[in-house]
Amino acid sequence: MTATDTLKALLEAALTPSPTVISIGLAIVLLFPIILHFIFSAATPYATLPSVLLVGPSGAGKTALLTLFERGPFAANPGSPEKLDAVAKTHTSQVPATIELAVSTDPSAASYRADLDAAGATAKKFLLVDTPGHPKLRGHALAHLSSTAPTVPTNTSSSSSSSPTQSKLKALIFLVDSAALSDPDSGALASTASYLYDVLLALQLRFHRRSGSRAPASVPVLVAANKTDLFTALPAALVRSQLEAELGRIRKSRSKGLLDSGVGADDVDAAAGGAGGEEADGWLGGYGTEKFSFKEMMEFDVEVEVLGGNVLGEGPGAEKWWKWIGERV
Ligand SMILES: Nc1nc2c(ncn2[C@@H]2O[C@H](COP(=O)(O)OP(=O)(O)OP(=O)(O)O)[C@@H](O)[C@H]2O)c(=O)[nH]1
Ligand SMILES: [Mg+2]
User: Transmembrane ranges (predicted)?
Assistant: First the structure.
């Protein structure tokens, strides 16, 4: 009897409106969603995936590379023509495309062919973002770089959820057509270098904006010299030196344009000396150097590496690029 009595008394107390009951009830109502949030956010540690941005001039092979990484096994035996078609049939991109990939954490085993099948517990997931290379559509890629937020919103097409995912930009691949670069009449060198100049300058400005812990981290750059299967293709070392020379020329002519446009030489010097001025002008790399070198970008925490490879045909393939990605995501 006593047990039912106490139960009765307890129930009665709980149902009588009193400040204690109301405050306990309020506390439960308010704390429950907060506790739920912590339980679920702890259960999904990969809410933000690292992302790798693919940029480069139109026709360099960005979409072809994305397709190769997505359907690796098809390209693994390029013997049958229809399988090769799956990679080769690309057309100029108009919108950015994102796919989700996984790279093995074991560096010795890093191969996109193997990783696609064995994406188990040891694999790191990341997003690969293809951007259009057409000069009028480069805003997509540059917007990713100039965003001050530590994360960039991307739309994952392959993932089951169609909602935008927040993603951390971890690396950038600048794809170039090394066969086109070897033709001095095509103007490919000038147009490729001018795009690369804008990309590197965006990363340099990003470095200057870094202040505080929520600032974006540095983004390493891989200049991927594609199409080395073609006999006219320049080797990676020449791609590097030609691009450096052209970037130096662009830097010189752009700073000259600044002088001609009415900004006095003193202003430019002052801008170069002052910490705030560096941000405003378009001078890429270190001051006081005549020739441009990719090493200068280390001053701004931007590591630049040049590696050759090919998406189609016979050659070293894309393994080195995949490995480079694996070391950085
Ligand atoms: N020979 C050879 N051709 C390649 C290679 N990679 C890509 N291509 C070809 O280059 C052409 C352009 O490739 P895309 O991937 O469409 O170029 P993109 O960089 O996406 O170009 P945009 O979308 O316009 O920015 C296609 O016809 C590909 O088949 C390669 O390694 N070797
Ligand atoms: Mg494309």
Answer: 20-40
